[in-house]
Design goal:
The complex is a heterodimer.
Chain A lengths: L5 E12 L2 E13 L4 E5 L6 H9 L6 E6 L2 E2 L7 E4 L11 H13 L5 H14 L15 H14 L4 E5 L7 H18 L2 E6 L2 H7 L2 E5 L7 E6 L8 H4 L3 H17 L6
Parallel strand pairs in A: 3-8, 3-9, 6-7, 7-8
Antiparallel strand pairs in A: 1-2, 1-4, 4-5, 9-10
Helix pairs in contact in A: 2-3, 2-4, 3-4, 6-8
Chain B lengths: L3 H45 L2 E2 L2 E2 L3 H39 L16 H32 L1 H14 L4 H15 L9 H14 L1 H12 L3 H9 L4 H39 L4 H11 L4 H30 L9
Antiparallel strand pairs in B: 1-2
Helix pairs in contact in B: 2-11, 3-4, 3-6, 3-7, 3-9, 3-10, 5-6, 5-9, 6-9, 7-9, 9-10, 9-11, 10-11
The chains are: A alpha/beta, B mainly alpha.
């Protein structure tokens, strides 16, 4: 197999506690190809977010390491943009300015002022938020905030887009809407995406591969499910697709039978 | 408006809206007035029964008349001052017309500063001390809030210096200022420097402490945003830390200004430095039958100015604050 775009090798992490070292994650191996959409799914507390934070460079792995395009990852950087669960927009900046902060940081040497403005507006358009460019985060809805969060991440033109339960805090209708938007964007731009989710339907609908994580402590990759549904995917059509239901069942089986959570 | 049925309805709506507005404002306006009136009555009642060696304690009426006395004095003094400068100018012109080479001297007027001049001096001094303190406190607070080791190094010093009374600093500051500030043609009076430095020493701490808290409690997610963007340390402070800490910084600044104003009056009294404190002390030493009334005027003015300074800071905070929906008070 050729060298992967993003490769995690023997990644583990332990945190010091009062009772000695707590091993949260152990021996995570993963190869992700360019343009692939990968979901991490598992019970809460299984270390999904930890994996994402290690790839982002926000945490340092205790053992093993992450390689992106043949270079080791050991610090955060805009080529691995993160969409945070609770949007994390700067409340004192408008939507436009929030994206501008990222664009100015990434393209300060390569884009002119006009090009930057066009690029920011292009990204606002991409998430259908041009109408709210001058609004503050406090003035728009949760779904809109998350759209801006995604636009900010995309505007960095990242090699890998990391999404930490991006739609977890949204209502079902808004979530469906944003999932459709995300599929469109992914089809357009072909980003490599790693997304954490709790939602089985979301995982099957969006992913090329679903990484199912075993429960912690010492959590690791349990099973990997290849989702071979043709793109573009239609939410309504898939509802009657037997393969969709098989994938769904496979994930549910892993989560609720093989990894039954003793105390939920 | 030809239809009487509709115009009747409109008048009714307007009327009820007015009543509603009046009912809403009444408690907000009426209760403070009642409180103030009750206080004045209580003051009047008590004042007559307190006998001091300088006569009975002044009631509201005496204080009001002393206030107008002070206004009159100020106007008289202002006239005298203009007259002095006019005379001086005439004299100098006469001298110059006789001998164009003559060196004319412009002497400042040296009359006794009036109450209102003392107010201006005090305001000027407190603002100088406050600005000096803020220019030191905010950067220091930001740096200590960002760096845990530095915070650990400086925290004990803050805790020790914070509770020191201004009166304890005053002799040291006076001696140091006289030793260090030795210019033959000083830009500022020594007394002014002494007062301002004492104010600065005392109003440093609330701003430092609150800035540290504001910076150290920066939201973890926003910190991560900054890390993912790889912002430089300077940009991190300018774009993320400072806006996030603004509310706490202002809490500190308001506490500092209030402390500074209290400290200044005490310092002026003790050091005989020009200002409202000296005015009170002079009146106390003067010991005329009007003294207590005049001191009372000063006391009330000090309170009003303290209140106004806080409102000023609040207005500034509202102007600077990004969260216009926050209920600042």
């Amino acid at each position: 197999m050729s060298t992967a775009h993003l490769e995690l090798t023997g990644v583990g992490i332990s945190f010091p506690t009062d009772k000695g070292l707590f091993c949260a994650l152990k021996d995570v191996n993963l190869k992700i190809a360019k343009g692939e959409f990968v979901s991490l799914i598992g019970h809460s507390g299984c270390g999904k977010s930890t994996v994402l934070n290690i790839v982002a460079g926000l945490y340092q792995a205790t053992t093993g390491g992450v390689i992106l395009d043949n270079r080791e990852v050991n610090a955060p950087g805009p080529e691995r943009a993160v969409v945070f669960q609770n949007h994390s927009l700067l409340p004192w900046l408008s939507c436009y300015q929030n994206i501008e902060l990222a664009v100015r940081q990434v393209f300060k040497n390569s884009k002119s002022k006009t090009e930057m403005r066009e690029w920011i507006e292009h990204n606002l358009d991409l998430v259908h938020m041009s109408h709210a460019r001058h609004k503050r985060p406090s003035e728009i809805s949760g779904g809109m905030k998350q759209r801006i969060g995604i636009a900010r991440a995309l505007a960095m033109q990242p090699k890998v887009l990391l999404m930490d339960e991006p739609f977890g805090a949204l209502d079902a209708l808004t979530r469906a809407h944003l999932q459709d938007s995300l599929m469109e964007i992914h089809a357009d731009l072909g980003n490599t995406v790693i997304m954490i989710t709790h939602d089985v339907d979301e995982a099957v609908l969006l992913s090329d591969r679903i990484i199912m994580m075993s429960n912690g402590p010492s959590a690791t990759v349990g099973e990997i499910l290849q989702v071979e549904l043709p793109r573009p995917r239609e939410r309504m059509a898939l509802a009657h697709d037997s393969r969709y239901h098989e994938y769904r069942a496979a994930v549910l089986e892993f989560l609720y039978q093989k990894q039954h959570r003793p105390a939920a | 408006m030809s239809n009487p049925a509709i115009s009747e309805q409109i008048t009714q709506t307007v009327k009820s809206a007015r009543t509603a507005a009046f009912k809403r404002w009444l408690p907000n306006l009426l209760m403070p007035i009642i409180g103030l009136a009750a206080f004045l009555m209580f003051w009047q009642m008590i004042a007559g029964s307190i006998n001091t060696s300088l006569g009975t304690f002044p009631g509201p009426a005496q204080v009001a008349s002393q206030f107008s006395n002070l206004v009159d004095e100020h106007q008289r003094e202002a006239k005298r001052e203009t007259a002095f400068y006019e005379r001086q100018q005439l004299r100098n012109q006469a001298q110059l017309s006789k001998n164009p080479e003559a060196k004319v001297k412009i002497r400042p007027y040296t009359g006794k500063p009036t109450f209102f001049k003392q107010i201006v001096t005090s305001l000027y001094t407190v603002m100088t001390g406050f600005v000096i303190a803020s220019l030191i406190a905010i950067p220091l607070g930001i740096v200590c809030g960002l760096s845990k080791p530095l915070y650990n190094a400086i925290n004990p010093l803050i805790q020790i210096f914070k509770p020191i009374s201004p009166l304890a600093w005053l002799p040291l500051v006076t001696m140091v200022v006289s030793a260090v500030y030795t210019s033959t043609d000083p830009l500022f009076a020594k007394s002014f420097i002494t007062s301002a430095v004492t104010v600065a020493l005392c109003c440093l701490w609330p701003t430092v402490i609150n800035t540290i808290v504001g910076v150290a409690n920066l939201d973890k997610d926003l910190q991560n945003v900054s890390r993912v963007l790889s912002l430089s340390p300077l940009n991190h402070i300018r774009r993320i830390v400072l806006p996030a800490a603004i509310p706490m910084i202002f809490t500190g600044l308001r506490l500092s200004l209030a402390t500074g104003w209290m400290v200044l009056i005490a310092a002026e009294m003790l050091a005989q430095n020009p200002g409202l404190g000296k005015f009170i002390w002079d009146e106390f030493q003067n010991g005329s039958s009007n003294s207590l009334g005049r001191i009372m005027v000063a006391v009330i003015v000090i309170g009003l100015i303290g209140f106004a300074l806080d409102r000023l800071m609040l207005a500034l905070q509202k102007y600077v604050s990004w969260d216009k929906s926050a209920d600042l008070r």
